[in-house]
Amino acid sequence: MVAAWLLLAPAAVMVAGVLAYPVAWEAWTSLTDLSPQRSGPARFVGLRNYVELATNPVYRFWPAAAATLAFVGLTGAVKLALGLGLALLLQRPFRGRALVLLAVFLPWVYPASVAVIGWYWTLNPPLVTSYSRLAADLKQAVDGAFGSGAWALASVGLFNVWRGAAFTGVFLLAGVQAVPADLFDYARLECPSPWRRFWFVTVPLLRPFLALAVFLSLTTGLADLANVWMLTGGRVVFPVLGTEAYWLGVQAGQLGPAAALSLTLVPPLALVLWALFRLVDPPEERPR
Amino acid sequence: MAQVVLKDLNKMYDDVHAVKDVNLNILDKEFVVLVGPSGCGKSTTLRMIAGLEEITSGEIQIGNRVVNDLPPKDRDIAMVFQNYALYPHMTVYDNMAFGLKMRKFPKAEIQKRVQDAAEILGIQELLKRKPRQLSGGQRQRVAVGRAIVRHPQVFLFDEPLSNLDAKLRVQMRVELKRLHNRLETTAIYVTHDQVEAMTLGDRVVVMKDGWIQQVGEPLEVYGRPRNRFVAGFIGSPAMNFIETTVADGAGALWVECAGLRLRVPAERSARLAGKRRQAVVLGIRPEDLHPATGADPVDLTCEAVVDVVEPLGSDILLDVKVGNCVIVVRVDPSVRLRQHDKIRLAFTPERIHFFDAKTEESLQ
Amino acid sequence: MVIERRWKKWVFFYVPLTLFLVGMLFPFYWMLITAIRPDAELYRSWRNVHNTPFWTLHPTLDHVQDLLARTMFPRWLWNTFFIATVSTGISLFCGLLAGYALARLKFPMAGTLGTAIFVTYLVPPTLLFIPLANIIRNFQLGDTPWALILTYPTFLIPFCTWLLMGYFKTIPKELEECARVDGATRFGAMARIIFPIAVPGILSAGIFAFTLSWNEFIYALVFISSPERKTVPVGVVSELIRGDIYFWGQLMAGALLGSVPVALVYSFFVEYYVAGLTGSVKG
Q1: Is residue C203 assigned to a domain?
Q2: Is A273 within 8 Å of C119 when comparing Cβ atoms?
Q3: Do C8 and C116 sit in the same domain of this protein?
């Protein structure tokens, strides 16, 4: 008992000590009208910020939420599909596998902030560069179809997929290797269709790994959005929850609504986490 | 109609030659056991028959059909794995039905076959459970049941009993034999345990370093091993080997070493005649030695000193010193001996084996 | 290996693998090309007759030289290395102890705490730097490496703990019990038996933490203001983008050079890394 607490203490002090205050601050701020642009102490306003968010179109909450959902959902699905494909490809031994593994992992290892610039440069080049016309045409076509900023969001999406698929792939590869080889051998003996084999054997066996991969790709997806917004100096203007919160808080100085906005992400994430934990560790059926 | 034929079968992994020129005809309804120490190529051979390993060269026929290029699922075989390979996310029923479902059998048929198999194996009560709720023996039964529902042409067993405790292993061994008598399906069984090989196999294939050493019925392999390796591998406790030299004397051939001088039985002299003054290895099983009585000819006996006494109940194993070597003798439990006792041992003449000291081939 | 015909292997293995590799590595190639392309070529028009968008005929190290001579790039490299190493060390230490406690010691709420670790990941990081900046200011740590060394563990420790907890669970209890029967204390057994066996897990957690801190951007941007104290990601981006002018060549050179250490670390440990991740979920 004592030993346990002793061992947990350093971690608890580091995490809770440094994180508790900011989280509490954010939660409290979301209930006030704190703003650096107004003198005087912050006033407690109850849930007004949240109500405002939901009802006042000025805050663009609903479009931002929809865009966030679409972004995270789409990139999540693509990352999972690519990652799984990668893991299954790399499952078998072949010459040069270690090198391929390293190459596949590079995108994730690479400093994201710098890689973003690389991508930004690739997809939104300054006008004078060699292929900028091509890129500009693409940008116009996409923005014309989905609204201004869509191309930039798509670039962020691509970037996120590029980075995330690498991580998901290596993570799932670890999963595939953790499954006894017998189980895959047996499936090859018994199941004529690779497709059915995939759904009946591979996916269920990898379930815990898939669940964790989804969770990690969700949270990193959300974090990426905010990073990119800052990195590109606000050039990505398609409103999603993270960028809106940043904009509201830092640019417009409305810290209360901004805090509220970013906290709206917590309940849905918690729900997803709970669902995934059920997947990882389903309640045991009693034998009859 | 499902004999299995292996012709000049070879397997190379990068630079390891795992299976070398294996030729084997397995008859319909036969139970053949591949046995050998780990790394002898037995599992690789089985996996090539299953289609889980690519064939480097040679040919495999199942039921008169060359299957070299057939994927495993089309070979009409069923395999039981060492670790059972049961799917943790499926119930016992679903595990057993898996192969049939994948082949799109009608539901009623699947149900009937699974029920039948469960009945044969006595696991009807377990059908709704998940593998992790089963004991080792129960999992083993499910793995076997999963193979028999398929009604395959050939059963392949890859060390299926090696994860069970000793008692359960003996019990399952009997059940497998009974099952084979009942189903009459060709079976190929891989094990490193020579007792399993002897008790289960219609024929036993002894392998070492990728080569087949000997093929034959269990008692033939036991009684007339073709070389020193087979002689030492089959039988427990293992055959005793004594390095001797062939010598002439008194109108007969003798083999001798420190503390031992035996007259070569007349019917064996022909093969040893050319080996005068050369080294040969004498082999004798513990059960083919006994304390000498007046009836035993003196020139087939030797002096020995008891070193260790191991009573097994049914008989006693004696580790004795003969000259410089230690050999094991199996004696009747009524024999009362203690450490350091001196005894005279007699060799059963027709059970003495001789092996060439260099090639290790039998000089039968 | 499945027995397949040759063309099948091509269609289902080599072709997709190649596509993956090209997709994964093209951006790096692009950065490399940009880094060694002379400026004249870099800003040439698409329709120019001599345009070679995908390669360069006049490779140059000008940008790299510029980067090393005119910016504080070597200094940033050292800062980043120092900060990443120390914060990784702290996080590993805390994570090892906490992971062990959660995996091995029976106490009420062990399960709940294990789950709670994940919850720290639920808080969106977007605005956290504002209150964190307050703390940093109150402790007068602003513009020092300690500002980062103390804040990075907040997001590193949960991950390390979780990964190591999973790894410890895969180590058979008997190993430790045997050591304790043989006379080791619980802490002795932990340090001398369990930790050495957990080396793949520890390495993998360490690499993960090192990468995350090497790449961290927001905190480094907000808490550090002097150019000579910046880290590579921030330095490269903030010093080589002036307003709307991007020094592309130097930027890409910095990007490539700046990630060499991390890539090196990975190339040595990639197998360990996969092994370590495996343990984390099995438990």
Answers
A1: yes
A2: yes
A3: no
Q: Do C122 and A269 make contact, defined as CB atoms within 8 angstroms? A: yes
Tell me, what CATH number does C111's domain have? Answer: 1.10.3720.10
In this predicted structure, what is the pLDDT of residue B346?
Answer: 94
Contacts of C257 (CB under 8 A, 6+ apart): C64, C67, C73, C77
Chain A CB within 8 Å of residue B74 CB:
yes
Q: Parallel, antiparallel, or unpaired: how do β-strands B316-322 and B301-311 relate?
A: antiparallel
Co-location of C95 and C4 in the same domain: no
pLDDT at A175: 82
C136 and C10 fall within a common domain: no
More confident residue, A3 or A160: A160
Amino acid B96: pLDDT: 92
pLDDT for B241 beyond 60:
yes
The pLDDT, as a whole number, for residue B309 is 94
Cα separation of B230 and A41, whole Å?
94
Both C27 and C64 in a single domain?
no
Pair (C27, C125) in one structural domain: no
> Do residues C93 and C202 both lie within one domain?
yes
3-state helix, strand, coil in chain B (%, to 5): 30, 35, 35
Which residues on neighbouring strands pair with residue B263, listed in sequence order? B254
Query: Rounded distance, CA A110 to CA C113, Å?
Result: 32
Q: Which residues pair with B59 in a beta bridge?
A: B7
Name the burial class of residue C249, with classes exposed (0-12), middle (13-18) and buried (19+) by CB atoms within 10 angstroms of its CB: buried
Residues of C in contact with A109 (CB under 8 A): 211, 259, 262-263, 266
Res. A287 pLDDT band, cuts 50 70 90: very low
pLDDT < 50 positions in chain C: 1-3, 282-283
Considering only CB atoms, C1 lies closest to which of B53, B68, B69, namely: B53
Query: Would you state the pLDDT for residue B229?
Result: 96
Using omega within 30 degrees of 0 as the cis cutoff, is the peptide bond preceding A125 cis? no
Distance from CA of A145 to the nearest CA of C (A): 25
List chains touching A (3+ CB pairs under 8 A).
Answer: B, C
Q: What are phi and psi of C249, to 5 degrees?
A: -60, -50
Averaged over B46-69, what is the pLDDT?
A: 91
B71 close contact with C: CB closer than 8 A: yes
Backbone angles phi, psi at B211, to 5 degrees: -100, 145
Contact A200 B73 (CB under 8 A): no
Residue B244 predicted with pLDDT over 70:
yes
Q: Which of B316, B248, B243 has its CA nearest to residue B282?
A: B243
> Taking CA atoms, what residue in B is nearest to A202?
B87
* Helix H or strand E encompassing B331: strand B325-331
pTM: 0.76
User: Does residue C97 sit in the same domain as residue C174?
Assistant: yes
Strand order in the sheet with B31-35: B77-80, B154-158, B186-191, B31-35, B203-208, B211-216
Range of the domain at C25: 1-36
How many A/C residue pairs have CB atoms within 8 Å? 262
Domain count of the fold of chain C? 2
Q: Tokens at residue A121, please?
A: 């440069």
SS3 content of chain C, % helix, strand, coil (to 5): 75, 0, 25
Domain shared by C14 and C92, yes or no: no
Instruction: Provide, as residue numbers in chain A, all residues whose Cβ is less than 8 Å from the Cβ of B51.
Output: 188-189
Strand partners, B253: B248
ipTM of model: 0.74
Q: Residue B283 in contact with residue B241, Cβ under 8 Å?
A: yes
Exposure class string for B121-147: b at 16+ Cβ within 10 A, else e: bebeebbebbbebbeebbbbbbbbbbb
pLDDT confidence of residue A1: 63
Token pair listed for C187: 């802490």
Q: How many CA atoms lie within 13 A of C225 on its CB side?
A: 5
